[in-house]
Amino acid sequence: MEVPILKQGAVLIATFQAALSDADLNQLRMGLVQQVVKFRSRAVIVDVTAMDVMDSFASRTLREIAHMIRLRGAETVIVGIQPEVAFAMVQLGLTLEGVATALDLEEGLAYLNEKFKTAN
Amino acid sequence: MSAGEIRVSINSDQDIVSARQKGRMMASELGFSPGDATLIATAISELARNIVSYARKGQITLKMVNSLNRQGILVVAADDGPGIADIRQALRDGFSTSGSLGLGLPGVRRLMDEFEINSEPGRGTIVTVKKWKL
Predict the structure, then answer these.
(1) A with B: how many residue pairs have Cβ under 8 Å apart?
(2) pTM given for the model
(3) CATH code for the domain of B16
């Protein structure tokens, strides 16, 4: 299942529609990096509200996405990690170190607005 | 196949998703909380991922279990892959031979209540885990 990527001004928003396979996650990683370049985006929000499980592969891929996008000079915010999913991630020993997270899409956008405001 | 038992063949990354979804469904049917169902689904995801990464194909079996007055779920991940030479090392946090995070097995052990592994080089791996309903 492909993840749709919406462009909203300088921000790209990728919203998971359902549980993703490894191939879907890899495809998302390529798609996001390409579109950040194409649209000269300043930030990416990845909404994982619909992600049923965040295992080692999914966490690593999200971290890679954030790091690749940072190398382009843009920001990434992961939003919508469900409480049960967060609990399982901690038990599993997975972290999203160095990656910004926010409660939901709204909070993610607010975080970016604040960040861009202070940067200007 | 007895009642209350589900087998999922693991051959691709898509099967990882289907195995954990079936596991979550069974856990919910057994009355596990959504939180515990997510822990079980996450453990299944890691076990299925190990099969795909190391053995390419194998099988996950999900089964309802009873013990005394407790009810739980049993997950068996079996493959005929290369097996694990040093199980102790594989159970240590941070160990990996496939370029993954290497948190798989120790993490799965933390997510579940009971954990057992049988493996020999060249003879495949069987990981058996259980979680009991509170």
Answers:
(1) 77
(2) 0.91
(3) 3.30.565.10
